[in-house]
């Protein structure tokens, strides 16, 4: 699975994410069962599937946000199995949660600066801030506005920008197109393609298969908590089996 204007967060030294035997239970229900995959340096990988397939649970488990069992979880030579969710950013993992989760009572700029907390708000955070505003000009125009007053699409841009403030080597995105108009989905796609083109590693979970296939080079198709198929985005988007798994046809 492999994959220019300024790169807002690329460090130039991406590391491979390796996942082996990832399993998630909610009570007696197994939501994710023995999932294996890798995301190479500079690679954009998507996870698609029907509702309830285990996509978001996989991403939350990687971040340590839900209880999990895993045989191996590494980013390069870093063992992530013992890393707490709040410390993942310190190891180069950025996360854009489902539903945006912006701080509604804080300004756009304060939301962004909170994304740089792991770096101690050092002087180069101002450079990151300028790069995010270059990537999302509307955020620069609204920097003093409360995040809760933004539209859904603007809040999604803010959530992505906040994650980029830590200059992650790997960016995880959970349903970034949810609830957005077709025009805003195209805007988010353009941003993801730019980040990928600049060499950032991406792992994208999406209900919107079209967006995923256009934003990534390789995909996992999940069904009932397991990886049912893997392959290039180009191959999978034309595979009738994907229509069966994804649409139930």
Automatic annotation (TrEMBL):
What domain of life does the UniProt record list for this protein's source?
A: Bacteria
| GO molecular-function term, one example from the UniProt record | ATP binding
Per the UniProt entry, what is one GO biological process?
A: L-amino acid transport
Per its UniProt record, what InterPro entries does this chain match?
Answer: AAA+_ATPase, ABC_transporter-like_ATP-bd, ABC_transporter-like_CS, BCAA_Transport_ATP-bd_LivF, P-loop_NTPase
Keyword ATP-binding attributed: yes
One of this protein's Pfam families, by short name? ABC_tran
Q: Does the keyword Nucleotide-binding apply?
A: yes
**Entries under SUPFAM superfamilies matching the protein:** P-loop containing nucleoside triphosphate hydrolases (SSF52540)
Q: Which SMART domains match?
A: AAA
Sorted UniProt keywords: Amino-acid transport, ATP-binding, Nucleotide-binding, Transport
Domain (ABC transporter) spans: 17-249
The family classification in the record reads: Belongs to the ABC transporter superfamily.
Name under which the protein is recorded = ABC transporter ATP-binding protein
State the organism of origin: Rugosimonospora africana
């Amino acid at each position: 699975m492999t994959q220019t204007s300024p790169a807002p967060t690329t460090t130039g030294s991406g590391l491979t994410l390796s996942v082996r035997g990832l399993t998630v239970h909610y009570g007696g229900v197994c939501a994710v069962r023995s999932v294996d995959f890798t995301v190479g340096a500079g690679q954009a990988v998507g996870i698609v599937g029907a509702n309830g397939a285990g996509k978001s649970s996989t991403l939350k488990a990687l971040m340590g946000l839900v209880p999990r069992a895993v045989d191996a979880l590494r980013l390069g030579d870093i063992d992530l199995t013992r890393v707490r969710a709040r410390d993942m950013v310190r190891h180069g993992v950025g996360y854009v949660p489902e539903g945006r989760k912006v701080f509604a009572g804080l300004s756009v700029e304060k939301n962004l600066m909170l994304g740089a907390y792991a770096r101690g708000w050092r002087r180069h955070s101002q450079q990151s801030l300028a790069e995010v505003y270059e990537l999302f000009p509307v955020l620069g125009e609204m920097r003093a506005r409360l995040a809760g007053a933004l539209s859904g699409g603007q809040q999604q841009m803010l959530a992505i920008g906040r994650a980029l403030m830590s200059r992650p080597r790997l960016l995880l995105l959970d349903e970034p197109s949810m609830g957005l108009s077709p025009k805003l989905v195209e805007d988010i796609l353009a941003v993801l393609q730019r980040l990928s083109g600049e060499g950032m590693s991406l792992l994208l979970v999406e209900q919107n298969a079209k967006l995923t296939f256009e934003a990534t080079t390789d995909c996992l198709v999940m069904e009932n908590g397991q990886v049912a198929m893997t392959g290039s985005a180009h191959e999978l988007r034309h595979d009738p089996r994907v229509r069966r798994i994804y649409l139930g046809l």
